[in-house]
Structures are given as C-alpha cells and as structure tokens.
Amino acid sequence: MSETMVDVLIYLYENYMGGEDQPPVEPSTLEDELTQAGFSPGEVAKALRWLDELAQVVGSVVETAPSAGVMRIYDERECAKLDREVRGMLLALEQDGILDPVSRELVIDRLLAIDHPRVLVEEAQWVALLVLMNCPGRESAFSQLEAMLYTEDACSPYLH
Known about the structure:
60% of the residues lie in helices and 0% in strands. The longest helix has 19 residues, at 41-59. The chain has two domains: 1-60, no CATH class; 68-160. It has 160 residues and is mostly helical. Helix 1 packs across helix 3 and helix 1 (5-17) packs across helix 7. It contains eight helices and no strands. Pfam families: DUF494. Belongs to the Smg family. This is Protein Smg homolog. InterPro entries: Smg (IPR007456).
C-alpha cells in the first residue's frame, strides 16, 4: 500500500474529526490502529507530528489587519512545491471568503510541511479543511469548504 501522510490525515478526519467518534487517548493505541488500517508506521508518525505542528502554529498566530489590495507573492521554493493549480485554488478560496490572509498563510505553511516534492490540489483542499477546523472563529468557512469537498458539483472548478 502506498498511502501518504495526507492519506493518514484524511483517514483521521473522516473517522474521528468529522464525526462523533473520539480517537484513542493513548498515542500508541492510535498508532497501532492506523497501522492495522494499512498505513506505514513512518507515514503515521509524520501525520501525527504534522497535526501537532498545526496545533502549535495555530496557537502562535498573531492576527494583523490585511492592507487593502495586497496580493500574495509566492517565492521560488513555494512555486516549486505548490503548482499553479494549487495556488489558483488557494486564491479562489480566498476570493470566496473561505480563507482569510491568516488562514491562507497557515494553509501554505502546512502544505510546505508535507514531505513530498509537489502537493496535489486534492491534498491542498484537505489541508485547508484541517487548518480551518483548527482556527477559532472560522467555523462557517470550515463548513463551507467541507460542503464543497463532499459535493460532486462544487461551485469552484478547483474543488470536487
């Protein structure tokens, strides 16, 4: 099975974060469960570390008022990892009011933390959902994105 860290994150969301079930309290029990579900121990460890880092990053965010008309410029490293389609999806989410400048930067940070050279649009969508889920005050945006992800004929060409 060639599951990635993002697949582990999606599994966790669909089985625990998006429903009423709670993950096991003991990290080793959760790791065992994920391994039994077919994920490699290395990918499980990366996913759990990624979630811990997300909690730390969200907890340390200082919100600043964005200046009107400011546009996000991606550096060379970001462009290499986040292709035009991913960057376009992020822009569309921001224009639709789902991401604000702070949550956009959190999403970009978490996308860059994924350990493969290029991030796919589907992975970026799930990362955006996980980030919004962890951002206080962004519940409405989270619900909008979740609905878009689970709707076949989503409004945005970047979501399916």
